Design the sequence.
């Protein structure tokens, strides 16, 4: 067990990824024909009602969000990890981009493929996902290309969206406006492994409940 004073056993490493414990989100978007897509992702960061989404530029979620400018950021519970993994190797981009052909195949209907159920959003056109206790309806604010591939094509982007409507399932609400952290257990992506939350250790002085 690592202690607060243990400073003699560190090594410098360079991991391929730095997903050291981030929530999984399912981004729902629609294309120009109104077809819905689900994009699993694990790079989401919130500040107030702004969300920063880290997305690959060769995916359907990126192009749909750029073109249609709306999405729902669905936050799944831990029990949905197997449904998410069913669509992990699927892409809504057709034809499949060259950079994805080795690992991905095209799927028009990821809802059926993953066993997900659509439900209407309240303020945006893309559907939400029933079974996700927290649904953040959002519109595109801006995006920045972070890196390019060897051919000079956009590789990854940081997309900022503005949350305009929040829906939460009654089971995780306490009072009128708060999420009950004792009832809400987000799915966590920790170095490419799925985890639920562990034991409750305490709370910050800013906690209101």
Sequence:
């Amino acid at each position: 067990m690592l202690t607060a004073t243990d400073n003699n056993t560190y090594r410098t490493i360079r991991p391929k990824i730095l997903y050291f414990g981030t929530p999984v989100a399912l981004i729902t978007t629609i294309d120009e024909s109104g077809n819905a897509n689900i994009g699993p992702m694990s790079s989401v960061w919130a500040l107030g009602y702004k969300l920063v989404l880290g997305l690959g530029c060769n995916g359907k979620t990126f192009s749909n969000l750029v073109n249609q400018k709306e999405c729902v950021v669905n936050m799944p519970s831990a029990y949905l990890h197997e449904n998410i993994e069913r669509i992990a190797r699927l892409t809504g981009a057709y034809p499949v981009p060259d950079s994805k052909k080795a690992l991905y195949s095209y799927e028009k209907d990821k809802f059926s493929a993953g066993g997900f159920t659509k439900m209407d959003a309240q303020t945006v056109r893309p559907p939400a996902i029933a079974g996700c206790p927290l649904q953040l309806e959002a519109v595109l604010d801006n995006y920045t290309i972070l890196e390019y591939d060897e051919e000079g094509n956009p590789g990854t982007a940081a997309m900022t969206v503005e949350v305009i409507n929040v829906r939460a399932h009654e089971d995780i609400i306490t009072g009128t406006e708060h999420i009950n952290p004792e009832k809400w257990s987000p799915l966590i992506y920790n170095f490419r492994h799925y985890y639920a939350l562990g034991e409750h250790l305490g709370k910050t002085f800013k906690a209101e409940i």
Notes: The chain has a mean pLDDT of 93. The longest strand covers residues 134-148. Helices lie at 60-68, 81-86, 110-114. The two ends are 32 Å apart (CA to CA).
